[in-house]
Design a protein that fits this description.
Elements: E1 10-12, E2 24-28, H1 35-47, E3 50-56, E4 69-73, H2 79-93, E5 97-100, H3 103-114, H4 122-136, H5 142-146, H6 148-157, E6 165-168, H7 171-181, E7 185-188, E8 198-201, H8 204-215, E9 230-234, E10 240-248, E11 251-263, E12 271-277, H9 280-293, E13 297-305, E14 312-318, H10 335-343, E15 362-363, H11 367-371, H12 377-380, H13 390-403
Length: about 400
């Protein structure tokens, strides 16, 4: 895996305030360039949390002045080494919650609860399991919520609309399902993110070529050996909507909807311009999944809106921080404050969804700037620049040199 851990290497971070009086949260990351991780400390610190970070060195997030303590991870490690580093840092900062910031962390935390490795003292194991359960919710539904071959059928059983689908195990099986579903199709590995582990195929020949690419070993498998399985979904044309939420023990606390208005690529690209949306259908579906899966923490539910009939179809759930979660404050949905209030026992009064006026589109920085520094979007719309976090801004600007 990338960004592996060694223990005991901690340093003080930025000036986020005195430790001790504030509840601590621990951001967990194995990636260095994820924008969502870097923008979370400000939201959490302003909500009242003391923010700690466990990350590989030279990450964007470590530059944030809102991080109070940092544990560094070594360049390479095994999952077991990562686990022992996690144990050491948890003991050092005593977090109220841990917050997974990328897909690898989600997989590692779930594996720790579902199949705890031998050699961990029972008391330590019990404390970690309780911390992860408090942070992520009901362990019975961890696998169902992130394994794409399980989620679609489970969501459909709950009344959430999903694309026509099937699960295939080999080329012969996939070909038969493809004939029944019809092209174009979306093929998905069990685990993936940001378009990785996903292929869009428009013919039998493309299907046959794509299957081997999705069959090989992947870091997110965590070394698990099992026959390959693929989710096959009918490709639906339309805009992509998401609901970003925070919850506690299956109770949604706050959330907001947004649409991918422009992206780095047409079909599997990352959002570079988003607009906020009122979407009662996707919010209701997200709330249903949250309650039925007993989810806690920050997560994002993705949908596609069928251009032909305007209906929303579930695509996946991200049980982690995503790039845009910090933008909720712009629409009166500060997810960090909602979580802080709930942990403090205060009632959370989220605004009614309604049809109130929403702010206009906003450019994702530095993603659009890195894509095209002369993009007209940068002057046509507001740009989400971290002006009050100068070292983070400097690190983001330096990403331009990494592209050259």
């Amino acid at each position: 895996m990338t960004g592996a851990a060694t223990g005991g290497d901690t340093v003080p971070g930025g000036a986020s305030g005195a430790r001790g009086a504030k509840p601590s949260v621990l951001l967990l990351s194995t990636a260095t360039r994820w924008l969502g991780t870097a923008r979370m400390p400000r939201m959490l610190a302003r909500a009242g949390f003391d923010v700690a970070l466990l990350t590989p060195r030279d990450s964007l997030a470590e530059k944030s002045r809102y991080v109070s303590r940092i544990g560094f991870l070594s360049p390479t490690t095994t999952p077991m080494e990562w686990l022992f580093s996690l144990i050491q840092f948890v003991e050092a900062v005593s977090p109220r919650l841990v917050i997974p910031c990328d897909e690898m962390v989600v997989r590692l935390l779930i594996a720790l609860v579902d199949e705890p490795p031998a050699g961990i003292e029972p008391e330590v194991k019990a404390r970690l399991t309780a911390l992860i359960t408090d942070s992520m919710g009901d362990p019975r539904f961890y696998a169902t919520s992130i394994d794409k071959t399980l989620l679609t059928s489970a969501a459909e059983a709950l009344g959430v609309r999903v694309p026509p689908h099937a699960v295939a195990t080999d080329a012969q099986d996939a070909t038969a399902h493809a004939e029944a579903l019809g092209y174009p199709l979306v093929l998905k590995r069990r685990f993936g993110f940001a378009g990785q582990g996903v292929e869009i195929v428009r013919s039998r020949d493309e299907l046959v070529r794509a299957l081997p690419q999705l069959s090989g070993p992947d870091q997110l498998d965590l070394g698990e050996l099992r026959p390959p399985q693929f989710l096959m979904q009918k490709f639906i044309t339309g805009p992509y909507h998401s609901q970003a939420l925070v919850a506690l023990r299956g109770v949604p606390l706050a959330g907001f909807g947004w649409e991918r208005f422009a992206a780095t690529a047409a079909e599997k690209g990352q959002t570079t311009l988003l607009r906020f949306v009122h979407s009662p259908e996707t919010r209701a579906a997200s709330d249903t999944l949250c309650r039925e899966f007993g989810m806690s923490g920050f997560f994002n539910v993705q949908f596609v809106i069928d251009r032909s009939d305007g209906k929303a179809y579930l695509l996946e759930i991200n049980r982690r921080v995503v790039t845009h979660i910090h933008l909720g404050e712009r629409v009166g949905r500060d997810l960090g404050k909602a979580l802080f209030a709930a942990l403090d026992g205060a009632p959370v009064a989220e605004e009614a969804a309604g049809d109130g006026k929403l702010p206009g589109p906003i450019v994702v920085f530095p993603r659009e700037w890195l894509r095209d520094p002369r993009s007209p979007l940068l002057t046509e719309f507001p740009v989400d620049v971290p002006w009050d976090d100068p070292e983070l801004l400097e690190a983001m600007l330096a990403l331009r040199h990494e592209q050259q």
